[in-house]
Design goal:
313 residues, alpha/beta, 5-stranded mixed beta sheet, single chain, binds zinc ion
Length: 313
């Protein structure tokens, strides 16, 4: 049985585990992410790997990392939320653990996990859209993970949706993720509550004030029928649908998989995304529309995907 270790490195925590060829996690662990120090980060990852490798016969390590990873899957060129700049993570961790290592963008790893073992199973062309604080993405075409020429492909959240629109952390403005992410949902809900307090009674009760409204309040208030919260989800659905329709025009996937933290509230918006997508798709009525599915693997997708990519390296 070919076992690997998958590691999912985020800004606050590192999730890791032993993954078999069926995508099953045999043992897992969680550590605090020393996001500010590349040296401590490499040591922490290596320590976690060594701990598991002592108990399991693993043959390789896959690291999914929240950053721009080069085309050789070795170096993290830049990470918006971590201290990595031109970080040779593959080499550093590889020397510390004595195993082959591959480094992959975390959203790519997540997409690969869903494609192989989750909601994308059975499709050869899958676009995974991770809707969280921002929007991440991964693209599988013809059964292969699409990385682009320099490894920087599938940064779906930074397509410009609105010329001259809301400022984005990437340095541009009007990026799709500023309209269709969890933070956009929250901003929209707060704006709605400000403009129409009478329609936001649940939101305002939960948040205590417009500024006090948090992401989970928007979901809870929407479930209670709060008008402002429902309108925020409606806006999210429309923006998501437009982005998916645009990607369908370019990539023509068999399915989209919606993952990320916001997908936990998918029952509040995914039917609307499907409707709006069908209404906006180019060539509609004369082509099979891509299915829009909700991710199945939750936060484990990245870890499992990274481990699987290490096996297939
Ligand atoms: Zn951007």
């Amino acid at each position: 049985m070919a076992l690997t270790i998958g590691v999912d490195v985020g800004g606050t925590k590192i999730a890791y585990g032993v993954v078999d060829e069926h995508g099953t996690i045999l043992e897992r662990g969680l550590r605090h992410s020393p996001a500010g120090s590349p040296e401590k980060m490499a040591l922490t990852i290596a320590d976690a790997v060594t701990e598991l490798a002592a108990r399991h016969a693993v043959e390789a390590v896959g690291i999914g990392a929240a950053g721009f990873v080069d085309e050789t899957r070795s170096v993290i060129r830049f990470a918006p939320n971590l201290a990595w700049r031109e970080e040779p993570l593959r080499k550093k961790v590889g020397e510390l653990v004595g195993l082959p290592v591959v480094v992959e963008n975390d959203a790519n790893a997540m997409a690969w996990g869903e494609y192989r073992f989750g909601a994308g199973r059975g499709e050869s062309h899958v676009v995974c859209v991770t809707v969280g604080t921002g929007i991440g993405g991964g693209i599988v075409l013809g059964g292969e993970l699409y990385r682009g020429r320099w490894g920087m492909g599938a940064e779906l959240g930074h397509m410009q949706a609105v010329p001259g629109g809301r400022a984005c952390g990437c340095g541009n403005s009007g990026c799709w993720e500023r309209y269709a992410s969890g933070s956009a949902l929250l901003m929209e809900a707060r704006n709605n509550a400000q403009a129409d307090p009478a329609g936001a009674t649940h939101l305002l009760r939960l948040g205590g004030s417009v500024e006090g409204i948090q992401g989970e309040h928007v979901t809870e208030a929407a479930r209670q029928g709060d008008r402002a919260a429902l309108a925020a989800f409606e806006s999210l659905a429309e923006w998501l649908a437009q982005g998916l329709a645009d990607m369908a025009a370019v990539l023509d996937p068999g399915c989209f998989v919606i993952g990320g933290g916001v997908s936990g509230a998918a029952d509040l918006f995914v039917d609307r995304v499907r409707e709006e997508f069908a209404a906006r798709l180019t060539g509609r009525g004369h082509r099979p529309p891509a299915e829009i599915r909700v991710a199945e693997m939750g936060p484990s997708a990245g870890l499992v995907g990274a481990g699987d990519l290490a096996r297939l390296r």
